[in-house]
Design goal:
This protein is of the alpha+beta class and 212 residues long. The chain has eight helices and ten strands.
Length: 212
């Protein structure tokens, strides 16, 4: 695709905007490159130009880069307006148990359900299934051990839900005092809660509650 400037927006920028708008979800650079007949480096330049344009014009949309994918999204400041239209389509809020399991997967991925169960001290099968149904986690192959248990990892939907560009953007684990614990808030921040309720940490490393 030609990238000659027509006075306001290049053809590549306009094409990229059109494809991302129509796709709705994040699209890989590889797919965009094939669709728009442009090199990945050219696409990134076009994406940066669009991002600058949206910022300069104070547009209600923004361009996100999620690892090797690009996506158009509404700006967080307009979230209340968007939610009035989409509220009925939003998944229910995550329970404390779901946040706990999601935290384990996010920071230790890929992990097996047995690993999660060991850390929590309870069966997590229903919670894992629920998170998978919500699109926050997905299967990531099998562990190469006898029985070959399924591995789980977080998804692009998880990154979008917590406003992260990549898993590396997760906040660093704090050096918790003994008997403190950690969970991930829905806004992506770390939340420490009193002992005896959820995941326990000793010297920054999680252990099953019964070992305390």
């Amino acid at each position: 695709m030609t990238t000659q400037n027509n006075g306001s927006m290049t053809a590549l920028e306009a094409g990229l905007e059109a494809v991302l708008f129509a796709a709705g979800d994040a699209v890989t650079l590889e797919r965009l490159s094939a669709a728009l007949e442009a090199a990945p480096a050219e696409l990134l330049d076009a994406a940066a130009a669009l991002e600058n344009r949206y910022d300069f014009e104070n547009r209600g949309i923004m361009l996100l880069r999620i690892e090797d994918k690009l996506q158009l999204a509404s700006r967080p400041m307009y979230g209340p307006y968007v939610r009035r239209v989409t509220e009925s389509r939003r998944p229910p809020a995550l329970s404390p148990a779901a946040l706990e399991v999601l935290t384990i997967i996010a920071y230790r991925q890929p992990v097996t359900r047995a690993f999660i169960d060991q850390l929590r001290g309870v069966d997590s099968s229903n919670t894992v299934s629920s998170l998978a149904e919500k699109g926050l986690i997905e299967e990531a192959g099998r562990l190469d051990v006898p029985g070959k248990p399924m591995l789980f990892r977080t998804t692009d939907q998880f990154l979008r839900s917590f406003s992260l560009a990549s898993i590396e953007d997760l906040p660093a684990l704090p050096a918790l005092e003994e008997n403190e614990q950690m969970e991930l808030n829905m806004d992506g921040t770390l939340h420490e809660t009193p002992p005896g309720e959820q995941l326990r940490f000793l010297n920054g490393e999680p252990v099953p509650p019964e070992t305390e």
